[in-house]
Amino acid sequence: MPTSPAPTSPAHIVRALDWSRIETDLAMRGCATTGMLFSPKECAALAALYDEPGRFRSRVVMQRHGFGQGEYQYFDNPLPASIAAWRSALYERLAPLANAWAAAMGQPADYPPDHASYLARCHAAGQLRPTPLLLRYGEGDYNCLHQDLYGDLQFPMQLTVLLSRPGEDFTGGEFVLTEQRPRMQSRAEVVSLAQGEAVIFAVNQRPVAGTRGTYRVTMRHGVSRVRSGCRHTLGIIFHDAR
Ligand SMILES: O=C(O)CCC(=O)C(=O)O
Ligand SMILES: [Fe+2]
């Protein structure tokens, strides 16, 4: 008998998302919100991992590198089981879209259908270190516009999940995207997220259909200044890092 995923499993929840809206938003704006992925309890449990020693392979204090203010930590292997499950379930749904983007930009459209195969490709290219991360911002902290590129191989979409409650745990701290268009001025997009909700967005370049064919735009993401409180997020990036 074919196995179907449990109703609470990431694979099941991912399948049930409103993909027609998500795909339209991604095509129009290079980003899309998902609706609630994690319950408040799950969000709190994930945010609490930040203080567990032994979970992470490295910690980055943003001001030391000119990346902003605040800090983040990359999970070490083995990833928490739920994060690994979300990462592969989301990958499977996004891989066909990634192939469509690659084809539209004249790039090889050969992202494999499952995440294990894609990770094997990353590892063969020397990108061996896991990239899921937890970020923590306090009052006055922010994250400069950036791209999460960690080697030659890059999957073209990633997700950020808001783990804190906007307006209650923190104020300010909006997720921001910019889109740099060829020979045009840049466009900004501010994404409002609820606790437990994710934004799916372009890591680097994405295709835009114009009147004279397809052109490429370059995206960057960051976070505006947190005005008060504490804000936690979970980042899910599908390529591993060199
Ligand atoms: O904290 C945020 O909203 C942005 C996190 C981020 O840069 C990422 O997930 O790659
Ligand atoms: Fe990022």
UniProtKB/TrEMBL annotation:
Any GO molecular function: metal ion binding
Pfam family, one: Oxygenase-NA
Ranges for domain Fe2OG dioxygenase: 128-241
Gene3D superfamilies per the UniProt record, alphabetical: q2cbj1_9rhob like domain
Alphabetized UniProt keyword annotations: Iron, Metal-binding, Oxidoreductase
Keyword Iron assigned: yes
Similarity remark: Belongs to the iron/ascorbate-dependent oxidoreductase family.
UniProt name for this protein: Fe2OG dioxygenase domain-containing protein
Protein source organism: Variovorax paradoxus
